[in-house]
Amino acid sequence: MKKVLCILLSAVMALSGLSVMAFAEETAADLGIAVGSDLHYNVPSEELETVIEGDDIYWYANRRAALEEESGLIIDEFLAQCAKDDTVEYVLIPGDLADNGKSIQQEHIDVAEKLKKFEEESGKDVFVIPGNHDYGVDCATNLDDFVRIYADFGFDKAIETFEGTASYTADLGDKYRLIALDSCDPTVSTADGMSLKEIMWVCDQADKAYEDGRYPILMMHHNLLDHLPMQRIVSKNFIVRFHYTTATLFADHGIKVVFSGHEHCNDTTSYTTPSGNTIYDFATTSLSMYPIQYTVMQLNDDTISYNAKTITSIDTEALTSTVKGYTEEQLALMNEDFNAYAKGFLKAGVRYRLELSLSMEKMGIAEDAIYYNLVNTAVSGLTDILKMPLYGENSVQELAKEYNIVIPESNYETPWDLATELVAAHYAGEEAFNVDNTEVAILLRTVALILHSDLATVNDEVFISVVNSLLDSMGITSTATQDIRKLAAKIFGGVKPGEYFITLLISPLLYEFAFDGDAVPDNNGEFAGYNSDVTNLDNIMTNISNMFNKLLIYFENAFVVIGRMFGIN
Hints:
Layout: H1 2-27, E1 31-35, H2 71-84, E2 90-94, H3 105-122, E3 125-129, H4 143-149, E4 168-172, E5 176-181, H5 196-211, E6 215-220, H6 231-234, H7 243-252, E7 257-260, E8 267-272, E9 278-283, E10 293-299, E11 303-310, H8 316-322, H9 328-336, H10 338-357, H11 360-363, H12 372-387, H13 396-401, H14 415-428, H15 438-455, H16 460-473, H17 479-492, H18 497-514, E12 524-528, H19 536-565
Parallel strand pairs: 1-2, 2-3, 5-6, 6-7, 7-9
Antiparallel strand pairs: 1-10, 4-5, 8-9, 10-11, 11-12
């Protein structure tokens, strides 16, 4: 009997194994790629220099919060992980390979050497395009230099190119074609430089890909879609001009997947055209900054899946053999969890940059501007409160009580600690700080406190006259402020109109920065492939549903959140 059972079990296991193998063959990816953007490689310094006085750990952090000295070793680890990953067939890099690439050509030479070594040892191909840091007119590195140095990484496999740029197309595997788009303006620091001819060239290349039986994938440095609330306004040089028009053209010509960088955040978002074609823009964070991640994507006809991969360690022995000045405590933290170290570095760098920027001179506001006194008052109050402890004597919590604002308990020490934590969450993607989170409550109520305390020194009529002047300059009737005052009084009672006017404008922006509500997972997800049975009507209905949900979130921000800020509910 035992022998019979053994035979039956063996048969079942064998059949199970065959079925698993068959399933694996059916679902095996047609294409596997890794995307690591904004390498920002720096030639290492001989020794660290102090930048932030008084910081025990991150005293060499910089304004960009980029791990410049460690950048080369991060690239090494990224390439090593791609070499070991059997699901990765190709590596794509959407620009900014070097940090000072325009002026220091050696940075490009060093990166190219690393990529060449990777290709030779792994047998996997690398494809690159330039970013705004990589070449320029009348610079040490021009367009011809860039193409020459990186000749082996896409340009040598080019099917077609666009003259006067570093744009090209190349095949990836048997089913896909890469459209590598040089979106940069070599004469301007960060803005996109794409002409209408280049945009139409992309559309033409997408059509040709389909004619050849291939699906088009687009790689560009600038973002195609918004990855910040109001990105077109607050970060305009990081997203292409006329982005919805351009996205509509690309999507309606059959492009479904776009890889971009530039914004240094992990964020995936989508856009559905009026015709029902959906395009996904994958903004990939900088490899030299927290969260030090890259994206691995698997593509089939029916599904496209993606996962974020994290760099958690580097060769610190190699680091200290090149750069002097690291302390034992810094190295111990790096070796314990390099990603956590990078987060602390980011928070220190962000605070340093913002503290330097929070002045009227740095913001470019002249003394004769109609809103100078108002903004100067707000900025002074903002910087004072950000520096205060959140709890205890002479704290934000104590000051807030004077205005009947409750600051919830938490483990954060200062508003700066909280603000930089939210910035780190934005860079990492999957922002999950909704209205029920303590972080959002503290953030918005601290904003309310700043508005209360700052505007307490500003006469209502002065504030309203400034607002009216601004609205008049934009061609908007000045009676809009009266309507807002009436609405605020009706809903919230007798509170200074200036507070609610500003809050109504900025609270959705702050909230959306902390909470990603676009229904597309940033780091790990799956959506319909190029040849799935999802119809354009399905896409349109999904888009309508997402837009409706976003409107609900906005109104919740504009009313419920404002109410919570002022302790109304």
